[in-house]
Structures are given as structure tokens and as C-alpha cells.
Amino acid sequence: MVNIFSEKTYDWLKWISVICLPAVSTFIVVISKIWGWADLGSMIAQTVTAVGVLLGALLGISHIQYKNSTENKE
């Protein structure tokens, strides 16, 4: 079975989805309230969160495939 991502890409995307995107989403929500753009900020933050969930799902699939391929080799 072929992995979706290389190890380096997996680590990079995991960092983005676990650290970066939640931080960006929170920043957008806070700043948009300060500037009075709550509706726009909410839509943007929800979009960023949706991208994070998609990346998480793809990373989960890649992890399962990697785990299965290493278990089959043993």
C-alpha cells in the first residue's frame, strides 16, 4: 500500500494542521471582533477550521496506511 505523503511532508502538514491553522483561526476571530468585522471573521475562521479538519483527515489516512504497511513487513 502506498503512503499518501512522504515523512517530511507528513510532519510539515501535521504541524500546520495542529499548530498553525488553529492559531490563525483564533487570531482571525479575535481581530475581527476588535475591528467590528465579526461576521466576516467568523466565516474566514470557519473556512480555516474546515481546511484544518480536511488536513487532519488526510493525515489520519496516511498514518493508518503507514502503520498497516509497517505491520505487514514484520
Bin the strand percentage. Answer: under 5%
Which class best fits the helix and strand makeup?
mainly alpha
Helix-residue proportion: over 70%
Radius of gyration: 16 Å
Q: What's the SSE pattern?
A: HH
**Low-confidence spans:** none
Describe it:
The protein is mainly alpha-helical and 74 residues long. It contains two helices and no strands. The model has no long low-confidence stretch (mean pLDDT 88).
Summarize the model shown.
This protein has 74 residues and is mostly helical.
Question: What features would you highlight for this structure?
Answer:
74 residues, mainly alpha, 2 helices
Outline the fold blueprint.
Layout: H1 7-34, H2 38-73
Helix pairs in contact: 1-2
